[in-house]
Amino acid sequence: MIWLLYRLATHLNTDRGKKGMRFRILAIVILLIGIFMICITESAFAENIKDVNKLLGNNSCLWCDLSGANVKGANLKEATTGFADMSRANFSKVNFNHADLSSNELSLANLSGADLSRANLNSSNLTGADLSNASLFEANLSGANLAYANLSGANLRRAKLSGFVGAANLSVANLKGANLKGANLKDVSLVEADLSGADLSDGVDLGNAKLNGANLSEAILIGANMEKAHLSYTNLSASDLSYVNLSNANLHGAKLSGTNLKGANLKGAILNDAALENANLSGADLTGTDLKGANLSGADLKATILTGAIMPDGITHE
User: Does residue 175 come out as left (phi exceeding 0), alpha (psi in the -120 to 50 range) or beta?
Assistant: First the structure.
């Protein structure tokens, strides 16, 4: 690098004429700036290595610069790294069990296959991070930013994604095939997220969650709480929503073709323009539900409660 700068400076220095002095001054300035930038970079790199060694040696590194570090497969169980810059770092298959990683910068970090069971990640920035096949069992992700993160195949069973510090942001996140059994997703943003094939059973709380435009096709949501959830234009085709609480939920334009809604609570829900072809609504409670413009062809309405519901043709059912 220095050699290239020297060659450039020498070339500029050989100019003749009235502008010769100006070019010589410019050449010196370019050379000095280049040397300064190299020194700064080398200093930052040395500081980064120092912080990495501190983490590995002490299992703790607060306010550290771990950006771009490679500690793949390391054992950092119960480690503490609060307010650290861990962006673009490689933590794949690292043991972070019970670790305190709250308020960290983890954007674009590689945490694939990592063990983050019962780890504290509240208020951390995980935008675009790779958490595929990671274990986040009972992890605290409340207030964390997981937008565009890859959580496909991840274990988030009983994970906490909503709490005192706020709800997590999982907009446009990839949660395909993820295990979210018993997770707390109340008020969480899952706008346009991919939850296809995900398991959201075992008492998952999705109350007031933002799921607009999300893909929940073939997802398992048996008995989930989705009261007042925002599900407009959401794809729920072929998913299992049996005995789900969808009271006062907004499902405008949602795709529910072939969906199992047996025994579901849909009181006061908005289902206008929804696609409900071949859906199973047997035993479901649709009291006061808005079904105007909805497609109910082939739907199973056996023992369905429709008192006060606005039917597809706009007529209120008695």
Answer: alpha
Compute the distance between CA of residue 157 and CA of residue 261 in angstroms, rounded to an integer.
23
Predicted confidence (pLDDT) per residue in 2-56, tens digit: 444 444 445 545 555 545 566 556 555 555 555 444 443 343 344 488 999 999 9
Per-residue pLDDT reduced to its tens digit, 65-78: 999 999 999 999 99
pLDDT, tens digit (0-9, with 9 covering 90-100), for 215-225: 999 999 999 99
Which residue positions in the chain have pLDDT lower than 70?
1-47
Residue 225's DSSP bridge partners are 205, 245
Residue 45, token pair as written in the block: 């790199």
User: How many CB atoms are closer than 10 A to CB 7?
Assistant: 10
Give the bridge partners for 194, in sequence order: 174, 215
Gap between the Cα atoms of 198 and 175, Å rounded: 7
